[in-house]
Design goal:
The protein has about 675 residues and is mainly beta. Helices cover about 10% and strands about 45% of the residues. The chain contains ten helices and 31 strands.
């Protein structure tokens, strides 16, 4: 009865002076949301990180924080919001001045400000006597388990789900989806003091059948076991995992973000990590390990065998299909048809004064790759066997920092990126980067810093950061690039540029703001200007975004208003968004990260003319039981009669979605009390 009364009277609670800044798991979820807004403010289409992978890692760290002075670069980079240069500056500070003894001391590290430190606080500790339990029994006694169930889908009926006669379906079997429009997934994860990580995930996308002639049950299954610090074995992974070495020119299936930091061209190896998400394409399956040979030397090795999606009819395939959707008989005919073996080894030397790494890579597909006979694919890899080798490095030299990677593939094609960063004055930093990726350099898992892909690109970028005042930061990026050969969508080599400028006001009396200008030129010149103003006070958060753009003589405009309210009894948070947009052409489309039900990720595209309404509710029903639901609708006012195309077509002018998540987590010990996320001293 008390729960019911709390729900009925929550409107009255909204005007009470009670605030939700207590140390609960709810605060961790809020912090993860803040981190995603921080990362994605400047992210472009197609460069989004894996939301679930990051949120799972952060949630586990909230219960077993990293000891900051002992954390490895790999562990800190997995936080997602620290750049490689910030991590390097932290290690240099520890080397010069000794262990960090108070988290507030991080203000003295180059690149760390109050807001960044507030994001870091729940996930690290600076206890010099910090020790983790070593025995299996002690580890399991301090473990956490989490069950997650998700449902979601579009509420309007798409053409792929409409009724059709049996005769017509027999004649055109791919004219309808085989499954229901409901997306659902189930996952279980156990973590113990960052030493043990075990997880199982099952997923069915909208339109995929839960049971078909091809297989029964969920469409996708994933499992992993990760063990850390087992004698000389620093990391052991069995099952599904990801790997990233050097600057990513040979191996990288960890999702980097291109947009957030103007210094993101510099990267450090993230090493081996467990796959903790529903991603069905970007991972390896097999066994991998990192061995600590000495204090400064380590070596990593991996072997993977996976069945990939591809059209292998005729005894060959033209490309890997990364859509990972199996909704029609045709899509199901591509499912897990291509066997691929991957083996790699990486050796690294690490000290505070230098890093050097070497990577060897080999892959083999059961049938050869034969791309289309078009001029654009003249240099695309053909065959069954891929080889590649690279050397990567970084070296600090006084106020300069040099970094890069050189790689060759089996045809002798070169890919290289090299850069230099420096701190000119106490408040001014700059970075110069050069990259060259040959049109013949074509690897399945290469993902380095690039405008498009890690092949057929030549570019130079210059970045700068200025701390103009205690609450004001200026940053900028100028990137000039060319594609020496034809890209798949172009009929001639292209030249382009990107210009990015941002002025950002750090938190001051609850206010934050930034103004951002971006200009991109490739096939079309696009310019955009965005203003974001946010205010936070106790349980109320407000954020306003206004953006306008111009592309090829046409204009786009968008305004967003976000409102968030949090309550203590019941533990409830409500978030709402209203958006108005008017984008004349596809080139005028805009993107903005949108709060979703826990575990879901959405960065909708604003194209056409209309309105978007969003309501999200997160409710802690019990201490360890959490429910999250999101409803959103886009209503178009540009006179259209349908939305989408093909089997995704919706008759009408609006499209609505509903996402729900249920978390149940429990501990084998008393639930810890979290520290303040933003202490008064900050």
């Amino acid at each position: 009865m008390k729960r019911l009364l709390s729900l009925v009277l929550f409107v009255f609670i909204a005007i009470s002076p009670e605030i939700v800044y207590a140390q609960t798991q709810y605060d961790i979820d809020e912090t993860i949301e803040r981190i995603y807004h921080y990362i994605l403010d400047d992210t472009e289409e197609g460069s989004e990180p894996d939301y679930e992978q990051l949120s799972q890692y952060l949630s586990s760290l909230a219960d077993s924080p990293l000891e900051l002075n002992r954390a490895t670069p790999d562990e800190l980079l997995q936080l997602g919001f620290l750049t490689d240069l910030q991590v390097e500056n932290l290690y240099y500070y520890i080397h010069e001045y000794g262990p960090v003894r108070e988290l507030y001391e991080l203000k003295l590290v180059d690149g760390f400000d109050d807001y960044l430190i507030s994001l870091l606080l729940p996930f690290v500790t600076v206890n010099p006597n910090y020790k983790q339990p070593l025995s299996l029994g002690k580890l399991l006694s301090s473990s956490k388990s989490r069950f997650t169930v998700r449902f979601g889908g579009v509420l309007e009926k798409k053409r792929g789900y409409t009724a059709i006669s049996p005769d017509e379906l027999e004649e055109k079997p791919n004219s309808r989806y085989l499954g229901s429009p409901l997306y659902h997934s189930f996952s279980y994860r156990l973590t113990a003091q960052n030493k043990i990580d075990f997880g199982i995930t099952m997923e069915k996308d909208a339109g995929e059948p839960f049971s078909s002639s091809i297989h029964k049950g969920y469409d996708s299954y994933s499992a992993h076991l990760k063990l850390t610090d087992i004698g000389p074995v620093f990391t052991l992974l069995i099952g599904d995992y990801r790997a990233s070495f050097g600057q990513g020119l040979v191996l990288n299936n960890n999702s980097f973000v291109l947009g957030k930091d103007v210094f993101s061209a510099m990267r450090m190896s993230k090493g081996l990590n467990a796959k903790n998400s529903n991603d069905e394409f970007n991972y390896f399956r097999g066994v991998a390990a990192t061995f600590k040979l000495s204090k400064r030397w380590n070596i990593s090795a991996l072997y993977s065998f996976r069945k990939m999606d591809a059209d292998t009819t005729g005894g060959s395939f033209s490309r890997l299909r990364n859509e990972s959707l199996h909704r029609t008989p045709l899509e199901q005919s591509y499912s897990h048809t291509l066997g691929m073996h991957v083996a790699a080894i990486n050796a690294q030397y690490n000290s505070l004064h230098a890093h050097i790494g070497a990577t060897l890579y080999y892959s083999n597909t059961v049938v050869p790759r034969l791309p289309d006979d078009k001029l654009q694919y003249l240099f695309t890899y053909r065959g069954q066997h891929q080889f590649a080798a690279s050397i990567d490095y970084w070296v600090p030299v006084r106020s300069f920092f040099l970094f890069g990677e050189w790689a060759l593939n089996q045809s002798g094609a070169l890919a290289t990126i090299n850069g230099m960063s420096c701190r000119l004055y106490d408040r001014v930093s700059m970075m110069l980067t050069h990259r060259y990726y040959s049109p013949k350099y074509d690897l399945y898992f290469a993902d380095g810093y690039a405008r498009y892909h890690t092949n057929n690109e030549h570019g130079v970028s210059l970045s700068a950061k200025i701390e103009a005042a205690p609450y004001l930061k200026l940053s900028g990026l100028a990137d000039v690039f060319s594609h020496p050969w034809l890209r798949p969508s172009e009929k001639a080599p292209t030249v382009g540029h990107t210009l990015f400028l941002k002025a950002e006001m750090s938190e001051c009396n609850g206010w934050t703001a930034y103004v951002r200008y971006r200009a991109k030129k490739d096939d079309v010149l696009q310019r955009s200007l965005r203003l974001n103003v946010a205010y936070e006070h106790k349980k109320l958060k407000l954020s306003t975004v206004v953006e306008g753009n111009k592309a090829d003589g046409t204009y786009g405009f968008m305004v967003l208003q976000d409102v968030s309210l949090a309550f203590l009894h019941p533990k409830l948070t409500l978030r709402g968004r209203y958006a108005y947009f008017n984008a004349e052409n596809y080139a005028n489309r805009m993107f903005a990260y949108e709060t979703d039900a826990l575990g879901f990720f959405m960065m909708p595209q604003y194209y056409g003319k209309g309105h978007r309404y969003v309501l999200t509710v997160n409710w802690h029903i019990l201490t360890y039981l959490q429910f999250s639901i999101k409803w959103a609708q886009t209503y178009y006012t540009d006179g259209r009669k349908t939305i989408g195309s093909g089997l995704e077509t919706i008759e009408g002018r609006h499209q609505s979605i509903l996402h729900t998540t249920l978390y149940w987590q429990f501990y084998n010990r008393k639930h810890r009390v979290y520290r303040n996320l933003v202490p008064d001293a900050m």
